[in-house]
């Protein structure tokens, strides 16, 4: 679900989103196309510590694997957030208000929004944004089929980059954003603030409904990112398989371990891929050597307190509205109104 599309030259970037940069001429020795994934992956392997944006998990295979993570018994966030949405849909809908132009960041399979749409019959338009174009198109088709009256306007885009939105829908009273799944937690603090500031600028007169995972017993977090069926491990390792598929890299995934752990000082789960043996991998005309124990840091998943989330939101220019929680207080859906006159 979450998030985010590389700016490949062929990506369907329209509606005021920044055009993709022109393809750069590439060295003759390299037969993989010059994509954002290629650039970021090579850069990730050259930097120390090695680190890549988790947005690159979401090729078609990775998006499907993420949907399967959401079905694992240990991965509570999706199910918990959906239960909050189902239980409080009427209250939430009242905050969103009538005739909204609804923008969803990181819409993925667009399952959660269905719970809200039932309580929002007057929505003017629904704009799901996601980095995974195929996945997004499938979700949009499904929604159009199930709700023939709804204007569904999918946008394949990477909103980790500076972005704007299509002009407001005709007859819309307000523009409202939804950002589910605690995907905000993939950003580091600076990036999260930048994203929220951009969103606050675009949602003036409306607001943002944001779902975040809360700080909790680390054993619960550990289990959620180390499911017994190994789906999260496959999701993590798919990054290397994607490099094999798209960049002609020769990773042997049997030589890599999925490693996820909670960092209590930073209050986040970190995911890494860790080399188990010495190996040399050729990629984009270069050789990369890995020693046993070398790590590629693939994801941060920040956990929040209501205070830490609200401080961030306030700093970005949002007001603080009501919050809806599950009974265990594992997950929060926070309404952030964005006053028309707010200064950013
Ligand atoms: C979609 C970023 C919210 O951090 O929990 C799930 C992605 N990574 N299992 C999360 C994820 C490993 C997920 N987000």
List the helices and strands and how they pair.
Blueprint: H1 36-46, E1 50-51, H2 60-69, H3 76-96, E2 100-105, H4 112-117, E3 125-130, H5 133-146, E4 155-156, E5 174-179, H6 189-202, E6 207-213, H7 218-224, H8 231-247, E7 256-263, E8 268-275, E9 279-283, E10 286-290, E11 295-302, H9 306-315, E12 323-325, E13 331-337
Helix pairs in contact: 2-8
The structure holds N,N,N-trimethyl-histidine.
Residues 1-2, 69, 77, 181-183, 185-186, 225, 232, 299, 301 line the site of N,N,N-trimethyl-histidine.
Describe the protein's architecture and organization.
- With 344 residues, this protein is α/β, with parallel strands linked by helices.
- Helix content is 32%, strand content 21%.
- The chain has nine helices and 13 strands.
- The strands form three sheets. The chain has a seven-stranded mixed beta sheet with strand order 4-3-2-5-6-13-12, with helices on both faces. Strands 1-11-8-7 form a four-stranded mixed beta sheet. It has a two-stranded antiparallel ribbon with strand order 9-10.
- α4 links the parallel β2 and β3.
- α2 packs antiparallel against α8.
- The chain is globular and about 60 Å long.
- It starts with 35 loop residues before the first helix and ends in a 7-residue tail after the last strand.
- The N terminus is likely disordered.
- The protein binds N,N,N-trimethyl-histidine.
- The site of N,N,N-trimethyl-histidine (AVJ) has 13 residues, from β11.
């Amino acid at each position: 679900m979450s998030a985010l599309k590389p700016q490949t030259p062929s990506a369907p970037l329209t509606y005021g989103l920044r055009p993709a940069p022109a393809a750069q001429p590439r060295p003759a020795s390299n037969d993989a196309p010059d994509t954002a994934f290629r650039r970021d992956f090579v850069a990730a392997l050259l930097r120390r510590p090695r680190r890549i944006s988790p947005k690159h998990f979401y090729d078609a295979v990775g998006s499907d694997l993420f949907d399967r993570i959401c079905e694992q018994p240990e991965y509570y966030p999706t199910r918990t957030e959906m239960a909050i949405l189902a239980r409080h849909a009427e209250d939430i809908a009242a905050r969103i208000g009538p005739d909204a132009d609804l923008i969803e960041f990181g819409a993925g399979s667009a399952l959660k929004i269905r719970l809200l749409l039932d309580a929002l019959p007057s929505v003017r338009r629904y704009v799901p944004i996601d980095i995974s174009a195929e996945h997004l198109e499938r979700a949009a088709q499904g929604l159009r089929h199930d709700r023939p009256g709804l204007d569904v306007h999918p946008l394949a885009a990477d909103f980790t980059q500076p972005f704007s939105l299509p002009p407001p829908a005709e007859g819309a009273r307000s523009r409202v954003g939804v950002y589910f799944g605690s995907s905000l937690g993939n950003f580091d603090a600076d990036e999260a603030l930048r994203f929220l500031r951009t969103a606050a600028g675009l949602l003036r007169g409306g607001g943002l409904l944001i779902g975040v995972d809360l700080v909790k017993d680390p054993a619960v977090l550990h289990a959620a990112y180390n499911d017994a069926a190994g789906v999260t491990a496959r999701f993590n390792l798919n990054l290397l398989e994607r490099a094999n598929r798209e960049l002609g890299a020769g990773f042997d995934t049997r030589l890599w371990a999925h490693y996820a752990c909670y960092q209590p000082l930073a209050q986040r789960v970190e995911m890494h891929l860790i080399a188990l043996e010495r190996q040399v991998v050729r990629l984009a005309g270069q050789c990369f050597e890995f020693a046993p124990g070398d790590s590629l840091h693939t994801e941060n998943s920040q956990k929040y307190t209501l205070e830490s989330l609200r401080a961030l939101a306030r700093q970005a220019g949002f007001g603080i509205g009501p919050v809806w929680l599950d009974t265990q207080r594992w997950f929060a859906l926070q309404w952030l109104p964005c006053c028309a006159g707010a200064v950013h």
